[in-house]
């Protein structure tokens, strides 16, 4: 179905390009990295470019579009509660002659408020859509089109958003599959990464402690245990290893325990660790329980909310290993410490035997949230052109870096942020400044240059990403874009909402010892009786459709 949809769109693109009779537009900024797809993508990109240039302003008279958008609390706090107060959106309006009437719900109410849009009878022109944030039409995208809420963009994209299609053609195969619904339609418009991004989080270690203790970088579980015990004995660390439970489970990758709270796939077959590798899970839990009892693991890990590292434990020299993002050591950890010799380096997840290859890790999606256009939109052509501008070479540069001469200058052919972003006179952090003077980093609808972040990170800190990225990306990865049908979603939720809670509670109990591992077999039996195997079947159906 998806291949038929892509073929249809390519045919439409070619037809529109012949009718337009226009020359090629400039190539988009950036490249597709290592995940470029084959000849059909190239054909799509070439044909899309031929369909015509985008000229500004988009309209001779001021036009207004209504846009429903999630609440970015940082940006809203800095712009007085209205995105139109952002210098970026003011400049975007000046360039396009399109004014945006923003509709922004209160933070943390987006999912609820999005659902209420469909009972109001008055949908905005453009809406934010995100499966990860549960901001979705409950019956799925195809149903939203068939129910008369969302616009089918299949025939419109070639003519009014060719630069988006070119960017899509350069993205990964997974993104190109995700861009088409099960019904063969193009309904969403994604943000797309210009280049593939390596994994940006993982475990870090106090390198200065390793050096002082004469320890080499740990590789195996035995190495890690020796390191943690040494940190406890030499430095009195109360939590030699500190992390939240979500990331603690990642340490099982080296034992063949993949996504213990979720699912993985091998050669197209969906699996779940408790069903497919129960003895590896038992062995992993036994190790964690040992570390916990010996005081090598943070005693408060189960209740910790320090998602990217506990700065209090770190500043007090009570932890030597934690899970975090590559930006955090320099931005948060080191400034809070009194030890000028402190330093952090990245660690790979441990393996059982030196030389073992990790088969799991964090795969950065080539896209995240998306736009959908209301079927009630009076001028979808204008909305698509407005979106498409940020996929042109000029628009992508503006969206990612702001206004040349103000927020960035070209240096040796590359955009470099000015002090407005990197050393703001009003005391804004670079993250806050970028949310005011450039397009929002996590928003849909842009050809996103994530590498702009590197202007604020040292080369050594960025090298951490390559350590965390050293794993087989295809071995166990279950694509987040594989979606369930309406009926499957209802059944999945009915089973897994209670089941996932039961699994999490018991795993934590086994680690802390509040539940004996002698009860592990009874736990497995209960999990199976709660229909985990049926959930795997549902995930398999979604993956099979996606892989078509």
Give the structure's gist in a few sentences:
The protein is of the alpha/beta class and 548 residues long. The chain is built from 24 helices and 15 strands.
SSE diagram, text form:
Blueprint: H1 2-20, H2 39-50, E1 63-68, H3 73-78, H4 87-96, E2 98-103, H5 110-120, E3 126-129, H6 141-146, H7 157-160, H8 162-169, H9 173-178, E4 189-190, E5 192-193, E6 201-206, H10 207-212, H11 221-235, E7 241-242, H12 245-248, E8 264-266, E9 269-271, H13 273-276, H14 278-293, H15 311-315, E10 321-325, H16 328-333, E11 344-347, E12 370-373, H17 380-388, H18 393-401, E13 408-411, E14 414-417, H19 419-422, H20 430-437, E15 447-448, H21 459-468, H22 486-512, H23 520-529, H24 532-547
Helix pairs in contact: 1-2, 2-8, 14-22, 22-24
What does this protein structure show overall?
The structure is a single chain. By secondary structure, this protein is α/β, with parallel strands linked by helices. 42% of the residues lie in helices and 10% in strands. It has 24 helices and 15 strands. Helix 14 packs across helix 22. It is globular and about 70 Å long.
């Amino acid at each position: 179905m998806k291949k038929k949809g892509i073929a249809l769109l390519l045919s439409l693109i070619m037809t529109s390009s012949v009718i337009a009779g226009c020359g090629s537009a400039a190539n988009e900024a950036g490249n597709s990295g290592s995940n470029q797809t084959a000849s059909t993508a190239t054909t799509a990109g070439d044909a899309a470019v031929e369909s015509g240039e985008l000229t500004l302003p988009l309209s001779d008279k001021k036009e207004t579009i209504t846009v429903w958008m999630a609440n970015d609390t940082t940006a809203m706090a800095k712009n007085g509660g209205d995105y139109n107060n952002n210098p970026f959106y003011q400049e975007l309006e000046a360039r396009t002659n399109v004014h945006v009437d923003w509709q922004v719900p209160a933070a943390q109410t987006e999912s609820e408020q999005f659902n209420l849009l469909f009972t109001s009878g008055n949908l905005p022109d453009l809406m934010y859509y995100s499966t990860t944030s549960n901001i979705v039409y409950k019956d799925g995208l195809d149903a939203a089109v068939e129910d008369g809420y969302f616009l089918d963009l299949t025939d419109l994209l070639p003519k009014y958003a060719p630069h988006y299609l070119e960017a899509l053609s350069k993205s990964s195969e997974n993104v190109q599959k995700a861009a088409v619904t099960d019904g063969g339609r193009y309904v969403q418009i994604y943000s797309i990464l210009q280049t593939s991004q390596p994994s940006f989080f993982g475990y870090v270690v106090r390198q200065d402690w390793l050096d002082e203790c004469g320890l080499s970088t740990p590789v195996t579980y035995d190495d890690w245990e020796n390191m943690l015990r040494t940190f406890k004995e030499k430095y009195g660390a109360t939590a030699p290893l500190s992390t939240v439970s979500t990331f603690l489970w990642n340490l099982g990758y080296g034992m063949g325990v993949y996504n213990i709270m979720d699912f993985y796939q091998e050669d197209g077959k969906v699996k779940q660790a408790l069903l497919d590798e129960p003895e590896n899970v038992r062995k992993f839990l036994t190790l964690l329980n040992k570390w916990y009892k010996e005081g090598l693991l943070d005693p408060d890990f189960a209740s910790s909310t320090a998602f990217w590292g506990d700065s209090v434990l770190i500043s007090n020299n009570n932890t030597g290993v934690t899970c975090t993002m590559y930006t955090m050591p320099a931005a948060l950890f080191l400034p809070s410490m009194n030890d000028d010799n402190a330093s952090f380096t990245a660690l790979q997840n441990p393996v059982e035997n030196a030389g073992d290859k990790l088969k799991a890790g964090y795969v950065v999606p080539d896209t995240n949230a998306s736009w959908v256009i209301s079927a009630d939109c009076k001028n979808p052509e204008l909305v698509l052109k407005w979106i498409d501008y940020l996929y042109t070479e000029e628009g992508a540069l503006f969206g990612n870096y702001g206004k040349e001469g103000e927020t960035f200058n070209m240096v040796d052919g590359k955009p470099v942020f000015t002090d407005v972003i990197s050393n703001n006179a009003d005391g804004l952090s670079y993250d806050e400044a970028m949310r005011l003077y450039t397009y929002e980093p996590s928003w849909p609808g842009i050809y996103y240059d994530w590498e702009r972040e590197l202007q604020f990170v040292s080369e050594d800190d960025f090298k951490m990403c390559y350590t965390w990225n050293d794993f087989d990306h295809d071995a166990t990865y279950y694509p987040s874009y594989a979606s369930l049908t309406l009926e499957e979603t209802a059944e999945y939720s009915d089973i897994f909402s209670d089941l996932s809670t039961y699994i999490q509670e018991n795993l934590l109990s086994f680690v802390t010892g509040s539940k004996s591992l002698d009860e592990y077999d009874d736990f497995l039996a209960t999990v199976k009786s709660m229909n985990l195997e049926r959930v795997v079947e549902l995930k398999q159906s979604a993956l099979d459709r996606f892989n078509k």
